[in-house]
Write the structure tokens for this entry.
Amino acid sequence: MNISNPATFLRQTASALLAGAMLTALLSCARPAFRPDEGKEANTPTTPKRSAPPPSDVVTSASPTGTHPDLEPTPSPVHHAKKARPPATTAAEPSPPPPAEGPADQAASASKPNPNLVRVFYATDREPAADSQWSGYGPDESANGQMSYGIASVSIPPDHRMGKVEEPIVDIKLLYNPKKYVTILAVNKADENTFFTQLKTGVANAPRKEALIFIHGFNVTFRQALRRTAQLSYDLQFPGVTICYSWPSRGSTFQYTADEDSVQWTARHLLNFLQDVYTKSGATSIDIIAHSMGNRALLSALQLLGSSPTPQFDQVVLAAPDVAASLFTQLVPTVQPHARRITLYASSKDQALVASARVNHYHRAGDSSGILCIIPPVETIDASTVDTGFLGHSYFGDNTSVLSDLYYLLKDGFPASQRSRLEQRTIPAGIYWAFRP
């Protein structure tokens, strides 16, 4: 290596480092995909790898393709936030998927849309990124809280494993191979009128005319939010339109306090967006999943919504909320009237919330160690017995048992007492539910 010229030396060094990173990423491609919790939950059957793509009609309606192997969707004429009353039975365990398509079936489906393509509608108050063709939107707050809208096309790899967002080690566009990774193929921006017109069309074409809104948490970029939303939509086989609401997280573990400011700043914008989805989408029910710090924005927005004679939303899922338990206890009664059911997922293994408690000096609602938030009629689910991964914070989308539980919650509106993976437990504070060990 020539070191006589400092500039040349720097370029050669940079090239060597980049080549090493690319080689590492390429080598990682050779590793077979696996389930995060495979072999760790002996009593819980894992969902097998898909051997045949689901029907393509869901693709055109901005949702993951297909229906559950043994529970077909049953459309019913319901109103906002009022799904058909579920039967008083426990949900059946998933059965194996149908056999793979033969040559005749493959020829017949050749002209159908890509069964692994998920359309994700998005709304964000992030500032558009300078390299918008790749990043879409950056970490900064938009000027004057301006909202941006659009539809992203996200592909799921053919060998996708439930609960995994397959991605290369380095977030470089060149490394994303749709055959191996969850890949954003396109981010198509739209003005507000066009967005809601297309959203309404997508809902109308969906088999159950539902919408699912996902609100991410701390340390998440716009692209990461889209990929997670697509993975959730696909793994939950949601039979409606999926929407990602992305607030301006800095996407850095060292910017926690900046994210705390932004998530409060976004609450009013989220409120306006939720109201628009309710009034303009034509959805018969609207489900919401908020994760981690995103729960602060959701709870604040629903509190700002004020009183309501009927619930506007169906299932509201508060996953690992990074919210002070004392504040959570105060807010929940004020937001309860806006949802048909609120479900809290917490875990004693959530190290991210333990760290948050050290920073904020207060126990977090998503941390079930020591203090478990039980606020009827909210259904509290303790996920401590499942494999929650390294930091134990993203189990809502990573663990197959939790995803299966969410499936029955969103699809049929089953209460915790009718979901087979849960068992009832009682403590002096009240009744809660836990995953069977």
